[in-house]
C-alpha cells in the first residue's frame, strides 16, 4: 500500500496517520474506524484553491456527496471553498454547521418541493436546474416567496469518458440534465430566460467520475463554450458561470495514474480563456466541483481481522469486522483498493489472501488477492483511499451499526461522527398497538 499524506511507519513498525498510531486508534476508538488525515485534507483543499481560485478566474465547490458531516463543512469553509449539495439533508447539515449559504450550489435530478422551499428560505447561492418540471416548480415557488433565484442549467454534452458505466454522466442517455446534441439544452435556455423569478447565470456539466485523461476535460470545455456562443446569438443571454463539474481521478491502486491538479487547472482555465477570446465572449467564471479527489486520498479505514479460512489449493479468506456496510463500492462497482497490516508495517509480504467482510452475503468482498505479511486474527488491516463514498454510502444491512469517523492531526484524534450503537439502530422502530404484549 502506498503511503499518502502524513502516513508513516513508526519505530514499533506500526502505521501512523496524522502522528497517531493506527493500532492505538483502534484501541481507543474501536473498529471498523474511518480515519481522516486532516492535514492532508487541508493540503488538498489548498491545492485546488491555489490552482483555480487564487487568480480569480475560477471557483472551487466541494462536492459534499463524497464525504460530509458538520466538521467537514467547517474545514471546507476555512479553506475558502464553496459547497455542492444534492439533498435537503446535505443542505441542512451545511446550515447547521454555519456554512455560508451564498457559497452553496444545489444539485439533483428530482428535488422535492420541500427541498426547493428549503433552498429558497436559506438563500443559497445557486440552484442547478435539471429539467423543465423542476424549472416550472422552482419559478412558481420563487414567485410565492417574492424572490428571484439564481440558477444554472445542467447540460449533458454527449461526451463519454473512460470510466465505469454507472459513473458516466455526460453522455446523452443519462438521468441528468438537458441533452445538448438533441437541441433540448437550447430549448431549456430559452425557457429559463423567460421565467420571471429565475435569473440565468450559466451552465453546468459533469462528464463522469474517476477520470485521468485531461483531454476529456478540455474537450468538455470547448463543447460548452461553443454552446455559450450559440446561447448569446440566439437569446442574447450572457453566461457568467461555467461549472464543469468534478470527476478528477485519484489513486486507488498502482494501476491508477492521476494527473496533477495544476495541470488540470491550466487545461481547463486556458481552454475557456482561449475559446472566449476566439468567439469574442465574456470569459465566464469557471467552477469545478471536486469531491473524491479531495476526500478520497485522505481517508483510511482500519479493521480488526477475525476469522482466517484457507481452502487448500483455492484461496485464503481473511475476514474483518466490517465489509460492504462501510464500503459498498467493491460490490457496486467492482472497485479495487490497496491494503496493509497496520501492526506489521515493516514485515515482508508472505502470502496472497482475499479480504472478506462479515455480512451474510457471498458478494461481501473488500479486496481480492492482496499480498500481505502472514495474517493472524487480531491484526489491524488498513485500507487506503477510503475517504470518499465510503462513510456517505454506508448502511445498516444485517443491523450492523455504522463506524465512527475520526479526524487525526498533530498526534491527536477527534471523533467527528460517533459510532452507531444498538439503540441507534432501533431508534426509529415502532411496535404497532396490535403487536403490543
Automatic annotation (TrEMBL):
<dbReference type="InterPro" id="IPR002986">
    <property type="entry name" value="DAP_deCOOHase_LysA"/>
</dbReference>
<dbReference type="GO" id="GO:0009089">
    <property type="term" value="P:lysine biosynthetic process via diaminopimelate"/>
</dbReference>
<dbReference type="Pfam" id="PF02784">
    <property type="entry name" value="Orn_Arg_deC_N"/>
</dbReference>
<feature type="domain" description="Orn/DAP/Arg decarboxylase 2 N-terminal">
    <location>
        <begin position="42"/>
        <end position="295"/>
    </location>
</feature>
<feature type="modified residue" description="N6-(pyridoxal phosphate)lysine">
    <location>
        <position position="65"/>
    </location>
</feature>
<feature type="binding site">
    <location>
        <position position="247"/>
    </location>
    <ligand>
        <name>pyridoxal 5'-phosphate</name>
    </ligand>
</feature>
<feature type="binding site">
    <location>
        <position position="361"/>
    </location>
    <ligand>
        <name>substrate</name>
    </ligand>
</feature>
<dbReference type="InterPro" id="IPR029066">
    <property type="entry name" value="PLP-binding_barrel"/>
</dbReference>
<comment type="subunit">
    <text>Homodimer.</text>
</comment>
<feature type="binding site">
    <location>
        <position position="292"/>
    </location>
    <ligand>
        <name>substrate</name>
    </ligand>
</feature>
<dbReference type="InterPro" id="IPR009006">
    <property type="entry name" value="Ala_racemase/Decarboxylase_C"/>
</dbReference>
<feature type="active site" description="Proton donor">
    <location>
        <position position="360"/>
    </location>
</feature>
<feature type="binding site">
    <location>
        <position position="389"/>
    </location>
    <ligand>
        <name>pyridoxal 5'-phosphate</name>
    </ligand>
</feature>
<feature type="binding site">
    <location>
        <begin position="289"/>
        <end position="292"/>
    </location>
    <ligand>
        <name>pyridoxal 5'-phosphate</name>
    </ligand>
</feature>
<keyword id="KW-0456">Lyase</keyword>
<keyword id="KW-0210">Decarboxylase</keyword>
<comment type="pathway">
    <text>Amino-acid biosynthesis; L-lysine biosynthesis via DAP pathway; L-lysine from DL-2,6-diaminopimelate: step 1/1.</text>
</comment>
<dbReference type="InterPro" id="IPR022644">
    <property type="entry name" value="De-COase2_N"/>
</dbReference>
<feature type="binding site">
    <location>
        <position position="389"/>
    </location>
    <ligand>
        <name>substrate</name>
    </ligand>
</feature>
<dbReference type="InterPro" id="IPR000183">
    <property type="entry name" value="Orn/DAP/Arg_de-COase"/>
</dbReference>
<keyword id="KW-0457">Lysine biosynthesis</keyword>
<feature type="binding site">
    <location>
        <position position="329"/>
    </location>
    <ligand>
        <name>substrate</name>
    </ligand>
</feature>
<dbReference type="GO" id="GO:0008836">
    <property type="term" value="F:diaminopimelate decarboxylase activity"/>
</dbReference>
<comment type="function">
    <text>Specifically catalyzes the decarboxylation of meso-diaminopimelate (meso-DAP) to L-lysine.</text>
</comment>
<dbReference type="GO" id="GO:0030170">
    <property type="term" value="F:pyridoxal phosphate binding"/>
</dbReference>
<protein>
    <recommendedName>
        <fullName>Diaminopimelate decarboxylase</fullName>
        <ecNumber>4.1.1.20</ecNumber>
    </recommendedName>
</protein>
<comment type="similarity">
    <text>Belongs to the Orn/Lys/Arg decarboxylase class-II family. LysA subfamily.</text>
</comment>
<keyword id="KW-0663">Pyridoxal phosphate</keyword>
<keyword id="KW-0028">Amino-acid biosynthesis</keyword>
<feature type="binding site">
    <location>
        <position position="333"/>
    </location>
    <ligand>
        <name>substrate</name>
    </ligand>
</feature>
Amino acid at each position: 500500500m502506498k503511503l499518502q499524506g502524513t502516513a508513516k511507519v513508526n519505530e514499533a513498525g506500526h502505521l501512523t496517520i496524522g502522528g497517531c498510531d493506527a493500532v492505538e486508534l483502534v484501541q481507543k476508538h474501536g473498529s471498523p474506524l474511518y480515519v481522516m488525515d486532516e492535514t492532508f485534507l487541508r493540503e488538498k483543499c489548498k491545492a485546488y484553491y491555489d490552482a483555480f481560485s487564487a487568480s480569480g478566474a475560477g471557483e472551487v465547490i466541494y462536492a459534499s456527496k463524497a464525504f460530509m458531516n458538520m466538521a467537514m463543512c467547517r474545514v471546507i469553509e476555512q479553506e475558502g471553498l464553496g459547497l455542492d449539495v444534492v439533498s435537503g439533508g446535505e443542505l441542512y447539515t451545511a446550515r447547521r454547521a454555519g456554512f455560508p449559504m451564498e457559497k452553496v450550489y444545489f444539485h439533483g435530478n428530482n428535488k422535492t418541493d420541500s427541498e426547493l422551499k428549503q433552498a429558497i428560505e436559506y438563500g443559497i447561492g445557486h440552484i442547478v436546474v435539471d429539467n423543465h418540471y423542476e424549472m416550472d416548480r422552482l419559478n412558481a415557488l420563487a414567485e410565492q416567496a417574492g424572490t428571484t433565484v439564481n440558477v444554472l442549467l445542467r447540460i449533458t454534452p454527449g461526451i463519454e469518458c473512460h470510466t465505469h458505466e454507472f459513473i458516466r454522466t455526460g453522455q446523452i442517455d443519462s438521468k441528468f440534465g438537458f441533452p445538448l446534441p438533441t437541441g433540448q439544452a437550447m430549448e431549456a435556455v430559452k425557457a429559463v430566460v423567460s421565467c420571471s423569478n429565475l435569473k440565468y447565470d450559466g451552465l453546468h456539466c459533469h462528464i463522469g467520475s474517476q477520470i485521468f485523461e485531461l483531454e476529456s476535460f478540455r474537450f468538455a470545455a470547448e463543447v460548452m463554450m461553443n454552446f455559450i456562443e450559440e446561447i448569446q446569438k440566439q437569446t442574447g443571454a450572457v453566461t457568467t458561470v461555467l461549472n464543469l463539474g468534478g470527476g478528477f481521478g485519484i489513486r486507488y491502486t498502482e494501476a491508477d495514474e492521476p494527473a496533477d491538479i495544476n495541470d488540470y487547472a491550466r487545461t481547463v482555465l486556458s481552454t475557456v480563456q482561449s475559446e472566449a477570446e476566439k468567439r469574442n465572449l465574456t470569459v465566464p467564471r469557471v467552477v469545478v466541483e471536486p469531491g473524491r479527489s479531495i476526500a478520497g486520498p485522505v481517508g483510511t479505514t482500519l479493521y480488526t481481522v477475525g476469522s482466517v479460512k484457507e481452502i487448500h489449493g483455492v484461496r485464503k479468506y481473511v475476514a474483518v469486522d466490517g465489509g460492504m456496510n462501510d464500503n459498498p463500492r467493491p460490490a457496486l462497482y467492482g472497485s479495487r483498493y490497496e491494503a496493509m497490516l497496520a501492526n506489521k508495517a515493516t514485515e515482508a509480504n508472505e502470502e496472497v489472501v482475499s479480504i472478506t467482510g462479515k455480512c451474510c452475503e457471498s458478494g461481501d468482498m473488500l479486496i481480492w488477492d492482496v499480498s500481505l505479511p502472514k495474517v493472524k486474527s487480531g491484526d489491524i488491516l488498513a485500507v487506503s483511499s477510503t475517504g470518499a463514498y465510503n462513510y456517505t454510502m454506508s448502511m445498516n444491512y444485517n443491523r450492523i451499526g455504522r463506524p465512527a469517523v475520526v479526524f487525526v492531526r498533530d498526534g491527536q484524534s477527534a471523533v467527528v461522527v460517533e459510532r452507531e450503537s444498538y439503540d441507534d439502530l432501533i431508534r426509529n422502530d415502532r411496535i404497532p398497538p396490535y403487536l403490543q404484549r
